[in-house]
Design a protein that fits this description.
This protein is an alpha+beta fold. It is built from 6 helices and 6 strands. The longest helix is centred in the first third of the chain and has 28 residues. The radius of gyration is 20 Å and the shape is elongated.
Length: 174
Amino acid sequence: MRARPHACGPRFQFARKRESSIKYERHNAIRDLVGNSPVTNQDELRRKLHRRGFEVTQATLSRDIHELHISKGPGGYSLPNGNGNGGGTSAANDGPPSVADVLESFGLRVRRAMNQVVIRTVMGGAQPVAASLDYEEWPEVVGTIAGDDTVLIICQDARHATEVETRLRTILES
């Protein structure tokens, strides 16, 4: 009787190493792109990565940006050490990003329900969106609650919710 060879072990370990290696290479490419050329939004970064041979989804790219601690300012993305188009020392760059900037990076769609507005975001994008709304202190907004990919905006009444929905939809579609 012949013994069956054990076929599972090393192949799976090799696959994990390969995935890790690809992620490492992709992170290096992102650092290089953000550090050496202006990158103003995720879609632009995704296209530049595609030209370098990296196919990534928006969710993966959002995760990579988060893991690399890349921030976005009015001028675009910047690395944690301040290198990149988004960095700088002007007073305009000192504050947090605007609702429009954050929605451009993370927002997917918006919908109203009575006196509430719900924003769907990429995974991990809800917190920055809610924080930007809280910071801007829109008078129609009573408060926000954020999960991983959903922001609940509570407004004073249905009329104000309609105004907020329209404003957010305009930002998302521009």
